[in-house]
Amino acid sequence: MTEKTALYCRVSTEDQSLARQRQRTSEYATDRLGIEPAAIEVYTDKQTGTDTDRDGYRELIEAVEAGDVERVVASEVSRISRSVRDFAATVERIVDENEVGLHILDMGIDLDPDKRDPYTRAFLTVVATFAELEAEIKRDNTREGIAASRSQGKWHGRPPFGFDVGSEGFLVPNNDYETAIVVLDELDKGASKRELGRRTGIGRSAVRHIANNRERYVGDPFNSL
Questions:
Q1: Tens digits of per-residue pLDDT, 168-217?
Q2: 179 CB contacts (<8 Å, ≥6 apart)?
Q3: 200, exposed or middle or buried, with CB in 10 Å at 0-12, 13-18, 19+?
Q4: What is the pLDDT of residues 126-136, one digit of tens each?
Q5: Which of 15, 71, 123, 190 counts the most CB atoms within 10 A of its CB?
């Protein structure tokens, strides 16, 4: 069987498009390397690059280790991984252990398994370090954004029982809110959580949540975060 040129493309979320990466890596393979389209295999992921627990990545490595791949092409180091450790391990598995070429387009780098260039390896490690740093900065910014929203009384994530999240990001009581008030009243009268869960049809876990967050329902529902 003819060995394939593998294109690896990754974006972080489902709503992002892989089209640009696919076009760029495909044109590189056909125009620069002279590879026939039939000899190209594309592996894709729509997941974070902070770890390698990705379906497309695993399939790529399996193909490499099976001897089905001659070279791997990616548009950027960060598309393969935003972790220095994972990127170094990937280079070792692809290039060193399986003698498969690795092309990183934005760096203009071609790691040839027959030519061990320590300077290129060192440069790639630096690039991977900045990719990891960028990912960490994004995570910090996200956490800070969530904290800022909550400090303003906005809700982040799945709303609690009895609430929806309004257009401005604040909790808004829905039709189940009155059920929560009834549950609290019945608990005060001595009803059991199991009994209330069965009677109201909302389940014991929802009753427990309401009981554990009483202030959200008996206080100001818009600000009790």
A1: 777 778 888 888 888 888 888 888 888 888 888 888 888 888 888 787 77
A2: 162, 200, 202
A3: middle
A4: 656 655 656 56
A5: 71
pLDDT tens-digit profile of 70-101? 999 999 888 888 887 888 888 889 988 999 99
pTM, entire model: 0.56
Beta bridge partners of 62: none
DSSP 70: E
Structural domain spans, the chain = 4-139, 163-218
The CATH number of the domain covering residues in 4-139? 3.40.50.1390
Task: Report helix, strand and coil shares of the chain as percent, to nearest 5.
Answer: 50, 15, 35
Burial class (CB in 10 A: 0-12, 13-18, 19+), 128: buried
User: Token pair of 159, please?
Assistant: 């709303």
**In contact, 6 and 41? CB cutoff 8 Å:** yes
